[in-house]
Each structure stands twice: as structure tokens, then as C-alpha cells.
Amino acid sequence: MLKISKLITLCCILFVVACHEQPAPQNNERSERSKMLIANMKLARDPHTWSKPNDARVTHLHWTASVDFKSKVITATAKYDIQNISGTDLIIFDTKGLQVSATKVDGQPVQFNMGEDKPIIGQSLNIPIKADSKSVEIDYKTSPDAEALLWVEGEKPFLFTQSQAILARTWVPCQDSPGVRITYHADVTVPSDLMALMSAENPQQKSADGKYHFEMDQPIPSYLMALAVGDVVFREIGPRTGVYAIPSLADAAASEFSDMQTMVDEAEKLYGPYVWGRYDLLILPPAFPFGGMENPKLTFATPTIIAGDKSLVSLVAHELAHSWSGNLVTNSTWDDFWLNEGFTVYFEQRIMEAVYGRERSEMLATLSRQDLDATIADISSSEHPEDSKLKLALEGRSPDDGMTDIAYNKGYFFLRLIEETVGREKFDKFLKEYFTSHQFQVMDTETFLDYLRKNLVDAETEKKINIQAWVYEPGLPSNIPSVQSAQLETVDKIRLNWENKKVLIANIPWNNWSYQERYRFISNFSEDVTAADLSDMDRAFDISHTGNNEVLFAWLQQSILKKYEPAYPELEKFLVHVGRRKFVAPLFESMISSGQIELAKNIYTKARPNYHAVTIGTVDEMLAGK
Ligand SMILES: [Zn+2]
Known about the structure:
By secondary structure, the chain is an alpha+beta fold. Helix content is 41%, strand content 19%. β1 and β2 form a beta hairpin.
């Protein structure tokens, strides 16, 4: 007995030590080292920045800011450590809508000037420097309509940022290119009843005076700069994981995401240590334009994934996977976006398989394939059919145009094909080595392919995979891996039989189905399905009031296409409340394509004030001239 309890005590101590071990010294060394690496690294030309980081580059930011909800303005000073690499007499920053009032170099005031204001990329801020200049200070204010920022009104207001792809420049003057990495410290003042959080080490409790200090000592690109301010509380999940949410959602969020620690553990088993310290999740207001954003140490997530049954947690696996692909090894420019997202979807699937089993990850892969086929069909009939290549050419366009299923799911299937061709064991070893040897670096498509050829794929295998077609040609090569989900195949059979009147509604096993099965059933309705059929289904299963937002989305889209009007009040409620672009854009698109323009305009008038600029940009464009 004694022996055992001693052993247990010892184990506990070891465990506690292991968990609370401060990795700081090692991390500092690493970030020092990686800063050096980065300083010497020549960066690719990025058409979406004014800055010239190969001449003069920022390395560290000290950001002092005060957040005012009344005027919707952040007043701030950005003090940067800089390196003058080429001996240039100018350091250039990206800005968009910022009001710059003063600049200093090494503590001395200097005269700056602003360049031409361009629609997508904004304006350059040009500051004269000397060969030995060490620091630059910029005093500025954001504009109330800064695109990265959404000021959500309510009983307690909420502010959040969304910087990716090139919106960081609307709240911090920066060298806004994914290749430029900085460490940062910040001192932020907010109303004292709210908590401030950043993509940095975070507080777990509100401060008494609304003042917060943040440190991010690992170098990150500007698109991972993030700030949120709101009435949130913290709930611990595991030793390195937790969730922040408004008080009324905190318990639901903590139970929905209770597998987060397991996900981190499984991810580490696959591709090596999680190097960012804590992994926490912040649940944002429903206006958040994305499902999640992989801000380091603190993923920002939409509340629409809280379903009550963990059915939508693959989103957390996705954002967690970005801690390796994207945050650690970063796409060089937005033309290489698939290196961020394709790898992340692949890794997400592997985490889902490890935690929830192969059938679940294969169901997800089947739905990915369904989305990918639809996207390829859309793109091939669009004005940019070349957008279905993995390697993009977005010069002169918004990098947002590249944020399609191509980067995510075509990228995923390409990597899965490599895995299936060389074998999983070899591919895992290769990926682990790839992430480790390129930490805190940038990667472009060509460098990755060289690395792949050198370390994994010989000429014969390359021919089998047909890398050229996957990366540089539009559409889907015929050797795309096939996905097998027995459960979804059954769903397809039942749907066909129901459509052909061979199965009655009462015999559809709806109540036993997972979200993936329900989504598959609804999203594949053929042309023959009518509003009357939807009415019967709604009566049987009350789908218009489902608590699962993915299922609701698919249902509302079919309701629009079949003109099932009893669902329209729910449609309006959903669109006014939820600003997630993945849902919002296809719903408006469906209203437009089915000729219900007035309906679209009426709902959009009510919904638009609640949306983030990212979502507004997309829907404005759809409705322009209609
Ligand atoms: Zn992603």
C-alpha cells in the first residue's frame, strides 16, 4: 500500500512538474534564434504589401493602446525595433484608414509621409531612417469603420479583430506580409468591466483597473495579431487548455470543448511538440465572420459551433492544427495559401481520426469532397477559372479571393494522395521533420515541392502523383483519393429511395443520425424535391428549429431554392444574428440565383449593420447592381 501511494505521489509530482514546467528560457532562446534566422532571410516579393522588408524590417513591437467604445476608436503608439538591412533611407509600413499624427526614429521626431491610397492594399507610411537606426515610433488612431475591427453593441459591448488576410493594417501600422515576423508586447487599457485578450499570454481574470499587459515572445506575422475586449470569463479544460466566453455561454462552451486537451495531446503525438505554451479558445459574438481564426495561443471561434453534442468540434481541431501549419510554417505570400490551409485540413482530419475514429473523419472527408466539387464547378464557370489551381496568382486582387475550398480541400486531397502513395508511416515522419526544421519560417510552393522531392518523393512517385497537375493546373486530377464512409453511403441510398417515393418520411432514421448524416441528406436534394416535401419533413422533424447550425444552414439553403416560405422567418432571424461568411454568402447567393432579389435586399438591410467588413465585402459585391 505504502509503496503504491508513494509511487502515485511521485507520479503526481512528475506530472505536475511536467505540466507546469516553464518552457520560457528555451522559448526565448528559440525566438532569439529564429529572429536571427528571419533577419537574414530574403523574402519573396509580396504584391499585397507596400513595405520592403528586404531593405528595412521590423523585428519587435511594443504596442500601447487605449480602446474607446463610445467613439469606436483605438488610440495607440506602435514602437518598433527595426533592422536596416540594405542601408536604405526609408522604412515603409502598411496602413489603411489610420490617422497617423507623429513619428519618431530613435526617440527623435521625424517627418513622415503617406503614399497613394489604393482600394485593396491601402496606403504606405514612409518614415526616413539612417543606416544605424534602431527604433521607430508611430502615434495614431484607428478609424471607426476600420475593417479588421467589429464593435458589437449590447448590454455589455464587445470588440474583436480579424486581421487575416491583410486587415491588420487597419488597426496597427505594420509590414503586413506573412513573411515578416515580429515578437510583441502590449499595454492595453479598456473599460474596467471588460477583459482584454490578445494572441499572446493572457490573463484569466479581469484586472481591477482595465489595464492589461501582454507578451508574445515568439515571432508571428502581422495577420496573427489579434485583440478582443468583452465581458468574458475563463474556464479551465486541461493543464494547458481552457475556454473564454461570455458568462451565459461559459459552461456550455466548456462542456462542448472538453476534448481540447486530448486534441492537443494527439496532435503532439503526430507532428511534434506544441510550442506556443497554452492553447485556449475564445468564443466570440455570432457576428464573427469566420468559423475560427488561429490566433496563436488563443483561437477565436464562432459560437455557431456550440451544438450541445460536440458534433462541430472539428473546427477546434482545425484551428489547433494551424499551430503547426500556418503559425509555425507560414505561407510566403497569399498565393501560397494552400500551404497554410491544405496542410491544416489534412492535420485536422488526422486529429479527428485519432480522437473520434476513422468513420467520423471519413464522413468529414466525404463532405469536404462534396464542397470541393461544388466549388470547382463554380470556379470553372467564373471569370477566374485559374483560381482552382493550388498555386494562385492574386496580384491586383484581394487575397480574400483565394480563400476558397481549393486551398483547403484540394490541398487536403493532394496531401492525402501523397500519404496514400508513399504510405502513412513515411509521410508522418516526413511531415514531423518538415514542421520541425522550418519552424518560424516562411514557405512557398516551389520550396515545399523541392523539399518534398529531396526528402520523400522520387521521380517515379512524382509521376504517379502528378504533382504538376495538382499544383499548377485547374480542376481535379482523376487520381484524387476516394473517400469511403459507409454511413453516408447509407444516407444517400435512403435519400434516393425517399425521393423516388420508395421510403416514407416516417421511415427515415433522422433522430438517430449525426449532424454529418443530416447535412448530407439535406444538402443533396435533387431538383424533384419540392416545397411540399420540405413541409412534410419539417412537420416530422422540426428541422427549421434544429440547434445545429450546419444542419440549419443546409436546410435554409434548400428552403430558399425550393421556395419553402414557412422557413423564411427563421432564415431572416439566422442571417440577422449570424455573420459567419461561410453561411451568409451561400444563402444570399441562393436568394439571388433563384430570383428572390427583394427578399435578399430586405434581409440584408436588417443584417448588414451586424456584419464584419469581411462578410459585408462579399455580400455587397453579390448584390451590386441587382
Ligand atoms: Zn484554416
